[in-house]
Write a structure and sequence with these properties.
Elements (H helix, E strand, L loop, with lengths): L1 H7 L4 H22 L5 H14 L3 E4 L2 E4 L1 H14 L4 H25 L8 H13 L3 H23 L6 E2 L2 H43 L1
Length: about 210
Amino acid sequence: METERVEKMNPGYLSLIWIVISLILLVSGWKDVVLHNIPRRQIAVFFIAWFLLVFVQFEVKGMKVCGIVPLIAVIGIYGLVSRISAERRLQTITAVILLGTIDFGMRQTEGIAAPALPDSAFILALAVTLLVRKPALQISALSLSLLLSEGMVLVAAGGRMPASLGDAVFQDHWWMTVCTARIWTLLAEGAAAAVKHGYHSLLERTRQWRK
């Protein structure tokens, strides 16, 4: 029932809801928890650029491209070229290929070009939570993987459908996947911290009993 309500929602409304929720969390002091290693200036630039580019549309060889596509591509590439180890970079690239293939496979299995929200977003969010934990790299991996999936869908369509990239459905998918991934990562980190704290507390009590 919940899935049906999300799918019937007009494209673009879901991303708007997530944007509002994200802004409320960021301005209310949750920035250091949700996006702890991303500077505030970069976050501000992202939101300003999003609100400006979401209304921009241009054409490339007959394909309509929304202005947010270059923005998401820059976010993805920036995460890979930032100061990270070669091993971490390779892990992120591997995650991009895996996540993009999973998203493309799910869409082809369903026989639709658009992602099946929220199912696809939840699966991708869970997968990236297991593969990448740092916020910047997580968002980078998801951004590139969703663009990869979109490109694979367009190639597989072979001109049988109107060529577009970065439409409202894609924006909904990006926001829901990224936000869900951050929520699940925080829950996983919280659970791990609780288990670690409980373990150390148990050890300390055991030592006291032995004394």
